[in-house]
Structures are given as C-alpha cells and as structure tokens.
Amino acid sequence: MEGDLQTAFGRNLAALRKQRGLSQEAFADLLGMHRTYMGGIERGERNLTLRSVERLAARVGVPALELLR
User: Fold this and answer.
1) Cα–Cα separations (whole angstroms), residue 33 to 1, 23, 25, 40, 69
2) What is the pLDDT along the chain (69 residues), one digit of tens a residue?
3) Cα–Cα distance between 55 and 40 in angstroms, integer?
4) Does residue 2 sit in helix, strand or coil?
5) What pTM, to 2 d.p., does this model score?
6) Phi-psi category of residue 62: left, alpha or beta, with phi > 0 → left and psi -120 to 50 → alpha
7) Is the CA virtual torsion 49, 55, 57, 60 positive or negative?
8) Of the candidates 17, 19, 44, which has an alpha carbon nearest to the alpha carbon of residue 29?
9) What is the spatial distance between Cα 4 and Cα 18, in angstroms, rounded to a whole number?
10) Would you give the DSSP letter of residue 68?
11) From residue 10, how far is each of 4, 13, 31, 55 by CA, in Å?
C-alpha cells in the first residue's frame, strides 16, 4: 500500500528511540532535527528521500534496511 515504507520507517525509528530511553525531543536534538519534524517522521507523515533514510540510519548507527523492515 502507499506509504507503507514511510510508516514502517517511522515506527522502527520510534521503537529505536524508545529502546534507547530517549524522548522525541532529545532524539531530535541528537540527530540535529526539529522535534516536530521528527514527530512527522515517526508518524509516517514525511516522505523522506532514500538519501535522507541513509543519513538518519547512519546517525543512529543501524543499517537503513533495518529501519525499513
């Protein structure tokens, strides 16, 4: 379905953040993003480019494919 990858990426990123015990705001600060933008990503509302997915994955230290599953 349309948007499934966006939703999966956001859900997985949020799970990773929670696993690390970080608030959305602290996680956004760590990644150099605004908290509202991060919230949009986690909710699957943001249509990220593949390059953005790669950058975020690299910043959190996990393979991009892991965040897309």
Assistant:
1) 28, 13, 9, 11, 23
2) 677 999 999 999 999 999 999 999 999 999 999 999 999 999 999 999 999 999 999 999 999 999 998
3) 17
4) coil
5) 0.89
6) beta
7) negative
8) 17
9) 21
10) H
11) 10, 5, 14, 14
Q: Which amino acid is at 47?
A: N
How far CA 29 is from CA of 22, 35, 45, 68, in Å, comes to: 10, 7, 19, 22
Tokens of 16: 């990773």
Q: How would DSSP label each residue in 23-62?
A: -HHHHHHHHT--HHHHHHHHTT-S---HHHHHHHHHHHTS
Q: Which structure tokens are listed for 10?
A: 């956001």
